[in-house]
Amino acid sequence: MITILLDGEPLEIKEGATLRDILPDHDPKCAVAIIRPGARESATTGSIRLVTTTGEVIVELNHAGQGIFESSVLRFPISLHWQDRYAAAFGPFPSSFTPSRTASLYERGDVVLGCGGYDPQRSYLIFCRSRHTADHGAARGGGVIGKVVSGRGVLDRWNTGDTATSASPVLNWADTSRSFTTMDRNVPLEDGMEVVSFIQITAYGYGSGKVTSTAAAGSVEHLLLALEDGHFVVGRSSSTHIRDERISGTAVDYQVKQPRREGAVTVRTAGRSGGSVYIYLEDLPGTPTHTVAGQVTHGLELAKLARGGDVLCARVDPPRFDLVGLPLGSAVVAAKAQGIRILGEPEGTDLIVVGQEPATTIESLAAGAVTLSVVPLEKVIDIELDDDGAPVSCDIFRHLTGLHLHDVGRIPFFFNFEDVFLFKPEIPRGVNIMPENSPIDLVPSGALAITNDSRKGSGLVGVRTSENSEFGPTSEPFEGTNIIGRVLDLEKLGTLQEKEIVYIRERHS
Fold first, then answer.
1. For a tag site, which of 34, 109, 170, 345 has the least CB within 10 Å?
2. Domain assignment present for 127
């Protein structure tokens, strides 16, 4: 038998086992990090991984610190005893040293062995959150036993009720010839190897199962939407960050002014990459172009080893709470599962949720209750969009109707004549609808289209209830028509009134 670490937990497996044996249900699209053992490196690093209820930190210990963690005085779990803006202390536990009874200067990330009442039998591990001078009841010289080298953002998130649950040695994996990401499930496992299979992110303003702040509710919702499929797609990898740019181009407000600490998850608020999600791999100053939305609490090694093009499994806590698009009965069940009440619960059958207030996950969880807007199913028109044939036009259409946020969107009905039904969404300035997926010889019944920029009526959306070999669904020539999908509920079109707001629901085949 050999022993490996799988996502921080020791695991005994048979010699000759592969990644497939320990991760049989792992998403085949996602890469995992392999950190090979290195006896020479691990003997000289002296680093430990401290696992807490809020996230992981890696501490590089000096000789005194190694002695503390190798001794039997530290028995986990250890609770957070006190915390303020300058430091956070876990303990107490017994140790043996002589307090100097003098103040010392400490830097952010310093780990101090101190005590309460100058009694070493009531010792604490004190993590410094910022530069300060204090008497922590430490030994001569300040009692610094180590330095936090990874996960510094976790220090700022510790709060009453948090616990340090375990500590384990860390191998040096900076040598990327020995540490790498892979999608090959046949990689053989070695004794002492570490495998990291996912990234865990805790949203800003959330911790220990409850909401502590709604200051970043909007940017957190953007983060949840970006990673809702459980993937972080690395569009760019650099020495300071990795970036998922799949929903770039979306406006996001600047909500949280904080330094970009190692492990910080931010959303870019401006520029060409506005809306992209970043994970920071080292400390950088804050900037108004990045708003902090979360913190990596597990799997930062995977982020550090990731390369451009890698897809990483990513989990965000809490998961997104969005009832829009659900049948009312399903929405009630989903809300109860999250402990959220529905105020003034609508009555009736075959009702679809088309609005939720508060609209964001963090605000809904904080309030513990939501108000829902519903319409009869007969008022909701189902559509399918053709992302393969018209990816750009479909993306524009989703943003025009709100389908990029929810499964149900809205579009104003313009008018109809003969077999043509037209809709007129508001087109923001700067939106260009280039020709894409134009029909060639026949437009089938039910085809959904948007007029492209080659025609004066650019942005007009239409559907035909019968096939046509001359004009598209918006009654434009084929060269001015972008086919974006099809309408599944043609029979519901006949009841529409001019200027009526029409609810559309995207169905995924």
1. 345
2. yes
